[in-house]
């Protein structure tokens, strides 16, 4: 389920990060075109030519920013995961009574909000794991999410830090994020809006697991 940057050499990447407004607009057109095509043709049906045509740009313009279609898919994941981070931060700031249950519910439903706004993301994340860069980026993002939420929970006094050492707490937090991520993949596998029952069960699953480290349990 979390933003971090994949370092050089981990897989396909953008040729350059656009600085000018016109270039940024072109990149966003490319990403939106690719997202639309993923919903229609799936990840495997995507090509650089089809993306360029849908974006109404010459293929040469696409290659100014992306080396291939895998780089476009990675950029979509980077964009959408960053949006998830922003949504989580916004929603957590609005929680009136913080508990383990309210924190987990808020975080996981924040991700669902973004899945609904960015329906191509889950398809890319589920079907695009043969792309090593996407897989590595997702795992790195999950690890970063776990670190951030662990720090948040400790600062809020939600976790009984004394019963586990720092490494154990980090492993528990990372496992909780990975379990939630996998459970959401199941919930969204056959329904682009997500199976409501499975979403609720995923939240209950992670909440129950983290109850073991709740303060004052």
Outline the fold blueprint.
Layout: H1 21-41, H2 48-54, H3 59-65, H4 69-93, H5 100-117, H6 119-127, H7 132-155, H8 166-188, H9 196-210
Helix pairs in contact: 1-2, 1-4, 1-6, 4-5, 4-7, 5-6, 5-9, 7-8, 8-9
Number of contiguous helices: 9
Instruction: Fill in the CATH topology of one domain.
Output: Tetracycline Repressor, domain 2
Write the H/E string, N to C: HHHHHHHHH
| Main sheet makeup | none
The radius of gyration is: 19 Å
- The CATH class of one domain turns out to be Mainly Alpha
Helix content: 55-70%
Would you count the extended β strands for me?
A: 0
Distance between the termini: 26 Å
Q: What is the percentage of strand-forming residues?
A: under 5%
Quick check: average pLDDT? 87
Poorly predicted residue ranges: 1-12
Q: Tell me the CATH superfamily of one domain.
A: Tetracycline Repressor, domain 2
CATH architecture of one domain: Orthogonal Bundle
Protein name: HTH tetR-type domain-containing protein
Organism: Nocardioides daeguensis
Keywords: DNA-binding, Transcription, Transcription regulation
InterPro entries: HTH-type_TetR-like_transc_reg, HTH_TetR, TetR_C_15
Please, could you describe this protein's structure?
The protein has 217 residues and is mainly alpha-helical. It has a domain at 76-213: Orthogonal Bundle (Tetracycline Repressor, domain 2). The chain is built from nine helices and no strands. The longest helix has 25 residues, at 69-93. It is elongated. 37% of the residues are buried. Residues 1-12 have low confidence and may be disordered.
């Amino acid at each position: 389920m979390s933003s971090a940057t994949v370092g050089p050499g981990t897989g396909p990447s953008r040729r350059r990060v656009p600085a000018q407004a016109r270039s940024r607009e072109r990149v966003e057109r490319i990403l939106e075109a690719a997202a639309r095509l993923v919903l229609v043709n799936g990840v495997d049906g995507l090509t650089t030519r089809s993306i360029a045509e849908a974006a109404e740009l010459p293929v040469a313009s696409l290659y100014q920013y992306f080396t291939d279609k895998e780089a476009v898919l990675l950029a979509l994941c980077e964009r959408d995961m960053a949006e998830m981070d922003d949504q989580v931060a916004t929603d957590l700031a609005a929680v009136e009574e913080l508990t383990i249950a309210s924190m987990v519910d808020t975080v996981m439903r924040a991700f669902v909000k973004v899945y609904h706004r960015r329906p191509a993301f889950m398809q890319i994340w589920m079907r695009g794991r043969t792309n090593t860069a996407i897989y590595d980026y997702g795992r790195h993002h999950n690890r970063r999410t776990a670190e951030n939420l662990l720090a948040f929970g400790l600062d809020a006094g939600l976790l009984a830090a004394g019963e586990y050492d720092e490494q154990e707490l980090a492993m528990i937090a990372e496992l909780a994020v990975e379990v939630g991520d996998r459970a959401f993949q199941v919930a969204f596998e056959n329904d682009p809006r997500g199976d409501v029952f499975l979403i609720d069960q995923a939240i209950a699953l992670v909440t129950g697991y983290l109850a073991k480290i709740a303060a004052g349990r």
